[in-house]
Write a structure and sequence with these properties.
The complex is a heterotetramer of chains A (313), B (95), C (113) and D (97).
Chain B (H helix, E strand, L loop, with lengths): L1 H24 L3 H26 L4 H25 L12
Helix pairs in contact in B: 1-2, 2-3
Chain C lengths: L2 H22 L3 H25 L9 H32 L20
Chain D lengths: L1 H28 L3 H23 L6 H35 L1
Helix pairs in contact in D: 1-2, 2-3
The chains are: A mainly alpha (313), B mainly alpha (95), C mainly alpha (113), D mainly alpha (97).
């Protein structure tokens, strides 16, 4: 019976993917992409990945959509020029052949996947009690494969440095993005005053519930970051100058605590990122709490873009 | 009972698909900006029905996140689509 | 057909569609969107593999799922960097072309004020 | 008792699904953006309300039920605000054109 819902989801998903490719304007393509991202959350629920569904709903639907739509609004003037350079029919046919071949090859691979499938679920089930957390995904992210999560946090910091390095020389240390002006007494201002308090509670709830149920720091941090951006878009507050000391400290506190706990693991249990027996859960919570502000700041500032005005408001 | 809820989920999904036809046809920007809203309320209902049918209560948290983020995405759509309509004094001047 | 194979085949289709858009579309922003569609196809494929690994009371293998969460966040950060690069490129050169023979504008550095 | 509860769920969910149908038909058939917006926001919100109402007795605990109601209120609030914003943007565009 679930097959009817799932087939419907697959059909809509492929239709929306085609839409994002064939749409004439970038704005329309992004509308399709956001709808596609929201629908992907349904896919993850069907694939028993509630944690992934939460991440996809937050990042795929909301954050990426807002990032793209902001860029599209600024780049609108260049679209006709790009359309004029569209590639000719031979290239299109060749692209069609190549991408169809890739799709068919992948589909064949899906059909011949080994049976029974290899799985690490038994190992996770055997060792999850030692970590003290109930959610297997959190156990993998912060205990069994903690080094991946550490590197991911570093990737985020480096991406932000990459975005900031695009700052024009005169504006280094200035405020990212453009100053949004909206009537603070208008509907958007009202909306941006009422929604963030609710969003902050939901974000912290999703973060906190991640220890034992689906949820966690990435999902919670994304919700908090979008609420911050909502306040900025409504013109109720301005983005901080990137030179601020508290900002810089907030950006590195998470990875530094993570690395410090990892190095402490070298001394006591004898391996990088190993937790002493019985202390796994408090250490995991310490890392998560320290990573939370870093993730909120980085995700929000990635959305805001490179500085393009001075530090004065 | 679960079967009925799944049928209802499939039906709502079909209705969302029908609504998306309008979004695709346009003609105005307003019709396009409705997409995130349509998908928001539709996919929340599908998620809740699906979760109730399969007994997966954590799906409610996904629906909660979706409700917040769909609201954020649709307001961002309107904000940026409207910002580029206004003259250069407002948003188009990077400094 | 099982859920995993259904979404696995869907993922293959998504990768194909995304790849086509990545090659054919000329505006860099559109290329980024197509690349994201292709990337999500890869994620769904990996998710289908995780679903097949359901065992020990879990609905799916938790290790690939944790990697997927990492992957989605990293994909977002890469997208943000790419978008920032495109915005800066277009504001510096006034043109959306990625073709290498396009002459750079002489006033490339006027913004250094 | 349980049969009655299930019947209530079925009726309420079916009524909710009907309002989704009404919303989509309105979205397709109404003549301009404002009436289409009206069809989408009002009908879909009522549809979601009925679906939530029907699912409430199926939820195991009070917390889950409370979250369902919060979701509905959130959607109600955001679609009320966003539909206003969309309508204003459409109006400005008309006035400007």
């Amino acid at each position: 019976m679930t097959i009817v819902v799932n087939s419907g989801v697959v059909f809509l998903l492929l239709a929306l993917a085609l839409w994002t490719v064939v749409a004439r304007e970038a704005f329309l393509a992004i509308v399709g992409f956001v709808a596609y991202g929201l629908l992907l959350a349904l896919v993850w629920v069907s694939l028993s990945g509630i944690d992934v569904a939460l991440t996809e709903a937050a990042i795929g639907g909301g954050l990426t959509g807002a990032l793209l739509i902001g860029a599209a609004a600024r780049l609108r003037a260049t679209e006709t020029e790009a359309r004029a350079q569209a590639c000719g029919r031979p290239t299109r046919v060749l692209a069609l052949v190549v991408s169809a071949a890739v799709a068919v090859a992948l589909a064949l691979c899906v059909l011949v996947l080994p049976d029974p499938a290899p799985t690490l679920a038994h190992e996770v089930a055997a060792d999850i009690d030692a970590t003290g957390v109930g959610n297997p995904i959190t156990a993998v992210l912060l205990a069994f494969r903690a080094v991946d999560t550490l590197l991911e946090a570093l990737v985020l910091v480096i991406a932000l440095i990459g975005v900031w390095s695009l700052t024009p020389d005169g504006f280094w240390g200035g405020r990212p993005g453009m100053r949004h002006r909206a009537n603070p007494d208008g509907i958007f201002g009202y909306f941006a005053r009422v929604l963030p308090p609710i969003g902050v509670i939901v974000g912290i709830y999703i973060f906190w519930t991640g220890a034992d149920h689906p949820g966690g720091k990435f999902q919670g941090a994304t919700i908090l970051a979008t609420m911050w951006m909502l306040v900025l878009m409504a013109g109720l507050a301005d983005a901080p100058p990137i030179g601020r000391r508290w900002l810089r400290i907030g950006l590195v506190v998470g990875p530094l605590v993570f690395i410090a706990i990892g190095l402490a693991g070298v001394l006591v249990p004898g391996a990088f990122l190993a937790y002493p027996a019985g202390f796994a859960k408090p250490l995991i919570i310490a890392i998560e709490v320290a990573l939370m502000p870093t993730l909120v700041l980085i995700l929000g500032l990635l959305l805001a873009g490179a500085p393009e005005r001075g530090a004065r408001p | 009972m679960p079967d009925f809820l799944l049928w209802a989920a499939a039906f709502v999904l079909a209705m969302v698909a029908l609504g998306l036809v309008r979004v695709k046809l346009g003609p105005g920007y307003a019709d396009r900006m409705m997409a995130a809203q349509l998908l928001g309320s539709g996919s929340i209902a599908v998620l809740l029905l699906f979760g109730a049918a399969t007994g997966e209560t954590a799906v409610i948290d996904v629906a909660l996140t979706l409700a917040l983020l769909a609201a954020f995405a649709s307001s961002a759509f309107v904000h940026f689509a409207a910002a580029r309509e206004r003259p250069a004094a407002d948003a188009e001047d990077p400094g | 057909m099982s859920v995993a194979s259904l979404f696995g085949l869907c993922a293959a289709g998504l990768v194909g569609v995304g790849l086509y858009g990545l090659i054919v579309l000329s505006h860099p922003l559109r290329k980024i969107i197509s690349f994201n569609v292709m990337g999500s196809g890869v994620f769904v494929l990996f998710g289908a593999v995780a679903r097949r690994g359901a065992a020990a009371g879990f609905g799916a293998d938790p290790v690939p799922q944790a990697l997927l969460i990492t992957g989605i966040v990293v994909a977002f950060s890469a997208t943000a960097l790419a978008v920032a690069l495109v915005v800066r490129l277009i504001e510096a050169t006034g043109s959306a072309t990625l073709a290498s023979e396009a002459p750079p504008r002489a006033d490339l550095d006027v913004r250094r004020d | 008792m349980s049969v009655l509860v299930d019947l209530f769920t079925c009726l309420s969910v079916a009524a909710g699904a009907f309002f989704y149908l009404a919303g989509s038909v309105g979205l397709l058939r109404f003549p301009d953006a404002y009436t289409r917006l009206h069809a989408l926001t009002k009908a879909d919100n009522l549809g979601l309300a009925l679906v939530v109402l029907g699912l409430l007795p199926q939820m195991g605990g009070v917390l889950a039920g409370l979250k369902l109601v919060v979701i509905w209120l959130l959607v109600l609030f955001s679609s009320a605000a966003v539909s206003q914003l969309i309508a204003r943007a459409a109006r400005r565009r008309e006035a400007g054109a």
